[in-house]
Amino acid sequence: MPPNDAPATAEALTPKPNANGGFSHFVDGDIVAAPADVDHYVVDVTGTKISVACSGWRYGSGLRGLKATVLKGDGTAMAGAAQTETETKNVFINAVTIPAGETQLVVKVEAASQDPLVTGTYYRCGIHVNP
Q: Which residues of 71-87 are buried (b: 16+ CB within 10 A; e: fewer)?
């Protein structure tokens, strides 16, 4: 699989229909060299709202400061579409309006550091595009 380290080389995700009439995408990923390694995933816009939920630290991983950011298809930021995991709170970006004209969005996942005592480098994200 080619590297997904930049928006231009984002890994395409396969959508699955969800109960809200939209589509969900699920990612089990690894950031093997935080903060240098960054993962990008591309999703097709099939609705008007996007939500992202991710967990690393709270899932038992050694990743600290896991952050998810939703980018427009060209790799530029969307307002209100980024959040960082803490010891007590998962990443949860809730129902951000997708800008008109966007046909694809990129979800960027990164981590601030790796706990020296916890070797896990994994995370899990759910990405949901709804009407």
A: bbbeeeebeebbbbbee
